[in-house]
User: What shape does this take?
Amino acid sequence: MRKIFLCITCYLFSLNSFCQSINITEVLASPTTNGINVTVKAVSGNGAGYLSHSYTTVGNTINLDVCYWFNNTLPVLFFENDFFIPLVNSGNYTLNVYAKNSSSTISCDNFSTTDVETVTVSYLSNEEFINSKALISPNPFSYSFDIQTTQTITNYSIIDITGKTIISTSSKSELNNQTSQLSTGIYILTLNFDNGQKANYKLVKK
Assistant: This one.
């Protein structure tokens, strides 16, 4: 009986370190140029921190995994994180947001999923947006492209179709040097302006 009691005690003790949870309180998704912006709001009763995210798009279903690490010595924390998911085809999309838990603060070991929220968002690939501030030409491009705008650009970023930022620079000449080396394909150009706003544009490298 004593051995059984000790085993149960050890099991409960080890389980305690993995009983943290994230509750998603709100998911906001809105179409923008060349994709959707997603805001995920969440809360933890144990103290935690945002670690990383990843997503997959299969047909008209988007699965967004948001990973959080935990620290029981921290107070209750609230989170609000913004993500951009590039899209090519128009249509109604089902967005599933999964709250993933990690015992590591370096990389997501994904030991459990504690909450799931699903929302629907409509995206039109040819929609005109009033916040669009620049004209990109030529597009498709072979080596480089011009950006015509009346706004001051503070940063240029190039994102591939998996959502990974592969170029980020404040120099247009450096942007030209790096885009000339890109492989053929579809990319997202993100421009940050000095007034704090940003805009996304679809780029085609031929």
In short: Residues 2-16 form the longest helix (15 residues).
